[in-house]
């Protein structure tokens, strides 16, 4: 009885009473075939645009390896045909070339492996209509994650964030421009920020130094606005008589102060202060009238701007 061969790897199965005295050769070849199928790695150098992975019965051949590493310099997209088309195969593939590799077995579907990518494929051995299936494309990663870790939805970033119990959006988490850590916080020592981005510390702030934002404000139609939300140090060069408005102070119960530098015009201009400003003895200061002369005033409020206390810090400072 003549030898037969396994369908997918070409391992020889000697017939009864066959190969007397030559069994050793057949066993050794079969062992090498099995070694390739179990853990064999083939480095397949590609040239041109076409090549084959062939499994030959009873003979060591390149289609018997488990992992195929494509190397070389193909002249363009390279098609590798798996033969014969009636052998079922599972291959691990790694494309180290700079061209796309297409794996085909018959007229059915093929798998495209871009340069630098790896994949796991299944050749269905369907004969002339054989198809190649990309097994990696069907991996369902989420079903293999432990639900106890709340990582149950990697397909949707917002859902994954919710599953992790994170209140922040992905954009809010994406702050990577801090070169040094902010440090640690202990229980009952909390840093929070409101909708306006204002930061609140429940304990004291100790800093080596700090800077204040300075804004130069201008007048329009005899009106000048100091927006308390934008800084703590302002300057205004008079170009016309103007009425000041202090807007957007913090809510009652929060202390806020700012410094205002006034530079007089070449023609003396008058200032009208907000009615909410309380000056010493209820008398507003007379501003300097000389061209370019500088006056500095300080204001603070603790009741949301209902009352601003005003103080003259210096005059005629030019």
Task: Lay out the secondary structure.
Elements: E1 4-5, E2 12-13, H1 23-39, E3 41-46, E4 50-54, E5 67-72, E6 78-83, E7 89-95, E8 101-104, E9 111-113, E10 118-123, E11 132-134, H2 157-163, H3 170-173, E12 191-193, E13 199-201, E14 214-216, E15 223-227, E16 233-237, E17 242-247, E18 256-263, E19 271-272, E20 277-278, E21 294-301, E22 308-314
Parallel strand pairs: 3-5, 4-6, 5-7, 6-8, 14-16, 15-17, 16-18, 17-19, 20-22
Antiparallel strand pairs: 1-2, 7-10, 8-9, 10-11, 12-13, 18-21, 21-22
Summed up:
By secondary structure, this protein is mainly beta.
The tally of beta strands, per DSSP, is 22
Mean pLDDT metric: 88
Helix content: under 10%
Residue runs with pLDDT of under 50 for 5 or more positions: none
Order of helices and strands: EEHEEEEEEEEEHHEEEEEEEEEEE
Task: Outline the biggest β-sheet.
Answer: 6 strands, mixed
Distance between the termini: 117 Å
Overview of the structural elements:
With 318 residues, the protein is mainly β. It is built from three helices and 22 strands. The chain has two domains: 4-138, no CATH class; 214-314. The chain has helices at 23-39, 157-163, 170-173; strands spanning 4-5, 12-13, 41-46, 50-54, 67-72, 78-83, 89-95, 101-104, 111-113, 118-123, 132-134, 191-193, 199-201, 214-216, 223-227, 233-237, 242-247, 256-263, 271-272, 277-278, 294-301, 308-314. A six-stranded mixed β-sheet has the order 14-16-18-21-22-20, with no helix packed on it. The protein has a five-stranded mixed β-sheet with strand order 3-5-7-10-11, with no helix packed on it. It is rod-shaped, with a radius of gyration of 40 Å.
């Amino acid at each position: 009885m003549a030898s037969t061969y396994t369908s997918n790897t070409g391992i020889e199965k000697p017939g009864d009473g066959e190969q007397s005295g030559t069994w050793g050769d057949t066993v050794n070849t079969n062992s090498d075939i099995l070694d390739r199928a179990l853990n064999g790695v083939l480095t397949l150098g590609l040239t041109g645009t076409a090549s084959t992975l062939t499994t030959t019965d009873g003979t060591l051949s390149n289609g018997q390896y488990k992992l195929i590493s494509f190397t070389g310099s193909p002249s363009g997209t390279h098609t590798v045909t798996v033969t014969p088309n009636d052998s079922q195969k599972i291959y691990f593939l790694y494309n180290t070339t700079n061209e796309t590799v297409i794996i085909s077995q018959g007229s059915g579907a093929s798998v495209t492996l871009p340069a630098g990518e790896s994949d796991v494929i299944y050749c269905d051995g369907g004969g002339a209509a054989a198809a190649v299936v990309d097994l990696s494309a069907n991996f369902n990663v989420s079903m293999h994650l432990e639900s106890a870790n709340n990582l149950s939805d990697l397909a949707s970033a917002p859902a994954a964030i919710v599953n992790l119990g994170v209140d922040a959006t992905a954009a809010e988490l994406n702050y990577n421009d801090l070169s040094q850590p902010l440090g640690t916080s202990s229980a009952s020592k909390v840093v929070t920020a409101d909708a306006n981005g204002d930061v609140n510390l429940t304990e004291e702030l100790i800093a080596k130094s700090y800077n204040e934002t300075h804004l130069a404000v201008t007048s329009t139609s005899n009106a000048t606005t100091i927006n308390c939300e934008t800084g703590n140090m302002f300057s205004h060069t008079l170009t016309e008589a103007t009425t000041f408005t202090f807007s957007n102070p913090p809510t009652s119960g929060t202390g806020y102060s700012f410094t205002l530098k006034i530079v007089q015009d070449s023609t003396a201009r008058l200032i009208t202060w907000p009615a909410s400003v309380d000056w010493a003895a209820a008398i507003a200061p007379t501003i300097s009238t000389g061209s370019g002369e500088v006056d500095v005033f300080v204001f603070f409020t603790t009741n949301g701007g209902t009352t601003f206390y005003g103080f003259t810090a210096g005059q005629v400072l030019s």
